[in-house]
Amino acid sequence: MPSADFLIRLCMSSRASCDTAMAAAAITACSAIRLLPFTSAVFVRSSDPCHGSTTRRRFQSWRVCSSPKPSGVLTSDGGSANELVPAAVTTPFHLAIPVHDVHAAREFFGEVLGCPEGRSAKTWVDFNLFGHQVVCHEVRNYNASSSANAVDGDPVPVPHFGLAMSVPEFHAMAERVRAAGIKFIIEPHLRFVGQPGEQWTMFFKDYSGNALEFKAMTTPSNLFAKYVVE
């Protein structure tokens, strides 16, 4: 086993920037000896000709699934243990949606969902939705429309957006929605029972008719498990 100091230098070395496999291997080795957290990201400054001068590249961190897995847990591609799987996503997502009224959006996202408010102007406002940026743009003539697709026997509204959260967060959010008197399109319940994709889910709409889904995997590591749903 290479020394810890060598592995750390290799993880951060600019020479690793030309070889993604080398960088991934270095990160894997560091993770294996608990030198780097699974969700860490390695930034490499490169002056090598293969990437141009003084550019910064972000290598997605990886973790090793070499330890025994709990029953029913799959890797991200549905495979077995001893494979590399992507670590948790740490980049905030940005979503802009139309709403009838900015003040109504503040009431829904700020008061009902508990999202801190960010920047705003007369006709738009930012919200922090669990670390992700949702921007509500006022469109007076906006008419939300959606279709539905059957998922595990439920007519799921399409399009929709939302979050994958922890089970306690899911139930806390369900209580907030109930307390606000908002009608569920699909009541909070457990779907895909006994399958790798088993999850809590609920659907409801904001005051402008935009559909949202909040879900919680009973096995969080199975969020991206690849398998055919029966």
Briefly characterize the structure.
The protein is of the alpha+beta class and 230 residues long.
Features:
230 residues; alpha+beta; 2,3-Dihydroxybiphenyl 1,2-Dioxygenase, domain 1; four-stranded mixed β-sheet; globular; Glyas_Fos-R_dOase_dom; VOC_core; Glyas_Bleomycin-R_OHBP_Dase; VOC domain-containing protein
- Please tell me how large the radius of gyration is: 22 Å
Structural class: alpha+beta
Domains, number? 2
Number of strands: 14
CATH-assigned homologous superfamily of the largest domain: 2,3-Dihydroxybiphenyl 1,2-Dioxygenase, domain 1
Terminal-residue CA separation: 44 Å
Instruction: Give the strand order of the largest sheet, numbering strands 1, 2, ... along the chain.
Output: 5-8-7-6
Largest sheet: 4 strands, mixed
Q: Helical stretch count? A: 4
Mean pLDDT: 75
CATH architecture of the largest domain: Roll
Per DSSP, what share of the residues sits in E-state strands of 2 or more residues? 25-35%
Unreliable parts: 10-87
H/E topology pattern: HHEEEEEHEEEEEEHEEE
Helix content: 10-25%
- At the first level of CATH, what is the class of the largest domain? Alpha Beta
CATH topology of the largest domain: 2,3-Dihydroxybiphenyl 1,2-Dioxygenase, domain 1
Shape, principal axes of CA atoms: globular
